[in-house]
Amino acid sequence: MKTTSHFIGVSLKSSQLADLFVAIDAYSRENKLTESILLQNVNSTHITFHYLPADVPKQEEGSILEEVRRSQNGMPSFVGGLTVDYFGGDATEKVCFIRCKEDSWMEETHMLLARNYPHEEVPENSLTFVPHITLFRIQDISKYASHKDSIDSMVSDHIKNIGEKIDTKGLRLYRVNSGYQPEIQITV
């Protein structure tokens, strides 16, 4: 697979979000928003902890995988404190996501990975760490804006229906190909 980037993240139990993705997709089709939003790949629900470049040398990949294995100690079995949120300001939202309550394991793991694999050349690594699950990217805010409240309500209702938590499956290293939409994200 052609690799455009890598990231380290917590893999989540996708089945807990599958109905939400289906509902958002149906709503977007019914309301002619398919060109306005781009859904995340439901088969790759995760929380990104740290970004890596496309060309990670095999030796570094091996040390990252070992670090990932060690870092799973203390990982919670679920993430909670879930709320719907956006990156971008009012009327300029770019990404709709489910925000997760940050815990000490998340912060410590993020800091450890950032210290051991700095990769300052990756722009996303300069952003503040916000534990989140991406739902979709907003391609056209002017068309999306009038549907925001309905979709926010849909997401909030789903969060309540799943008991306000999502099960974790493990910390993983992912390879990404952004040349396809939604982008392909495969665990190494």
Overview of this protein structure:
The chain is of the alpha+beta class. The chain has a single domain, classed as Cyclic phosphodiesterase (Cyclic Phosphodiesterase, Chain: A, Alpha-Beta Complex), CATH 3.90.1140. The protein is built from five helices and nine strands. The strands form two sheets. Strands 1, 3, 4, 8 and 9 form a five-stranded antiparallel β-sheet that branches. Strand 5 and strand 6 (95-99) form a beta hairpin. The longest helix is centred in the N-terminal third of the chain and has 16 residues, at 15-30.
Architecture blueprint of SSEs:
Layout (H helix, E strand, L loop, with lengths): L4 E8 L2 H16 L6 E3 L6 E7 L5 H14 L6 E3 L2 E5 L7 E5 L4 H13 L15 E7 L2 H4 L3 H14 L3 E13 L6 E4 L1
Antiparallel strand pairs: 1-3, 1-8, 2-7, 4-8, 5-6, 6-7, 8-9
The appropriate CATH architecture is Alpha-Beta Complex
What is the typical, i.e. mean, pLDDT? 96
CATH topology category name: Cyclic Phosphodiesterase, Chain: A
Give the biggest sheet: 5 strands, antiparallel
The level-1 CATH class: Alpha Beta
